[in-house]
Amino acid sequence: MGLLFKYLSVNDVNITATGNPHQKLSRTALLTAFGLTMFLFESGLPRPLPWAKPGLANIATLLALYALGGTSAWAVTLIRVIAGSYILGSFFSPGFWLSLGGGVFSCGAMILARRHARWFSLIGVSLLGALAHVLAQITLAGILIVQRFEILYLLPLMLWPALFAGFLVGVVAFLLLERMAVST
Amino acid sequence: MNHSRNTRSSFPSLAQRLWQQARMGDYLVATAFLALALGSFWLDNLFSQNGQTAQTARVFVRNRLITEVDLQQTDTLKIDGVLGKVTLAVAERGIRVIASSCPNQYCLKQGAIRCPQQMLVCVPNHLLAVIAGPEKTNLDGVTF
C-alpha cells in the first residue's frame, strides 16, 4: 500500500497518466498486482457464506478506471481473474467461469457508468459493479452448473452481502483516489 | 454533522464528502439494489409454493401401485406388505416408514425422503415408495 502511494504520486499530483504510454502501462501493471494480491488475500479468508467475498480486488479495478481509464480497468480485471485462478489452481474450473463472467460484466457495467459521470459517482459505480457481478454470477451458475430455477433461492443471500461490500469497496476506493488527488 | 462547522477543523467529514458527490444515478442504483434484495425474498416464497405443490409419493407392493399420496398433507398410511403391515408417515413434505413387520427394520433406518426419485425400500415386504417427478440434474453435487 505504501509503495502504491509512493509510486503513484511521484511525478505529478494527479496520477492520471497522460501522454506517456509507459507510465500508463506501468501503473496498470502496478494496479493489476495490487488487485491480484487482494484477490489472493481474500481467497484465504474464512467465508461464512461460501458464495460471498468482500470483493477487495474491485478496489484495484475502480482505481484503474478512475485514474487510468477503461482499457486499464479491463486489463486489471481480466489479468487478475486469469492469473488469480491460475495461481489458486482453479483455472478452467466452474468457479473460474463464474469469476470471469462476474468480472467481465461488472467491469463492463462500471465502465459504462463511468462514461456518464454526470449520473454516477464512485459509490454508484461501485454498487453497480457489485450488482452486475451478482447477477452475472447467479445467471452463469444457473446456466452452467445447477440448471434449476432453485438457484434463485441464493439471490437474497448474494445480494445483501454484495450491497454492503459494494458500498465499502466504493468508500475505500474513494478515500484512496482522494489521497492520490484524482478527481472522482 | 451540523456541529462540524463550529469545530476547529472545517474539512468536511467522509460522509459529507461522499454526500456531496452523490448523483441521481447513485440513488437509482441503490434503490434498484435494495428493491431486488428485498424482492428476491418474495420471489423465493413464490418459487417454494409453486415448485412443490405437485409432489407426490407412489407406494408399490410387489411392483403393483397401491396408492399415491400428496406430500403436502400430514397422514399415516397402513400398507399390506408380503409379510404384514407397513406403516408410512407423511409429514413435512416427506415420507418415512414408522413401523414395519420385517425382521431387520432397515426400512425404518432409511429415514424420511423428500426429493424426486428418492426411494424407501422394504425388501421382505416387497414394498417400494418413490417420490414422483423427473430428476432434473444428472449431477450429485458440484464443489469448487
Describe the protein's architecture and organization.
The complex is a heterodimer of chains A (184) and B (144). Chain A has helices at 2-8, 21-43, 57-67, 70-88, 94-115, 122-146, 154-179. The model of chain A has no long low-confidence stretch (mean pLDDT 89). Chain A is built from 7 helices and no strands. Chain A is mostly helical. Helix content of chain A is 72%, strand content 0%. Chain A starts with a helix and ends in a 5-residue tail after the last helix. Chain A has a single domain, classed as Orthogonal Bundle (Arp2/3 complex 21 kDa subunit ARPC3). The longest helix of chain B is centred in the first third of the chain and has 28 residues, at 24-51. Helix content of chain B is 28%, strand content 29%. A 4-stranded antiparallel sheet of chain B has the order 2-1-7-6, with no helix packed on it. In chain B, strands 3-4-5 form a 3-stranded antiparallel sheet. With 144 residues, chain B is an alpha+beta fold. Chain B has helices at 14-21, 24-51, 106-109, and strands at residues 56-61, 64-70, 75-80, 85-91, 94-100, 119-122, 127-131. Chain B folds into 2 domains: 2-51, no CATH class; 56-131, mini-chromosome maintenance (MCM) complex, domain 2, CATH 2.60.320. The relative contact order of chain B is 0.12. The two termini of chain B are 46 Å apart. The model of chain B has no long low-confidence stretch (mean pLDDT 84). Chain B is built from 3 helices and 7 strands; from the N terminus they run ααβββββαββ. Chain A binds chain B through residues 90, 93-95, 113, 116, 118-124, 127-128, 130-131, 145-150, 152-153, 155-156, 159-160, 162-163, 166, 171, 174-175, 178, 184, and chain B through 14, 17-18, 21-26, 28-30, 32-34, 36-38, 40-41, 43-44, 47, 51, 136-137, 139, 142, 144.
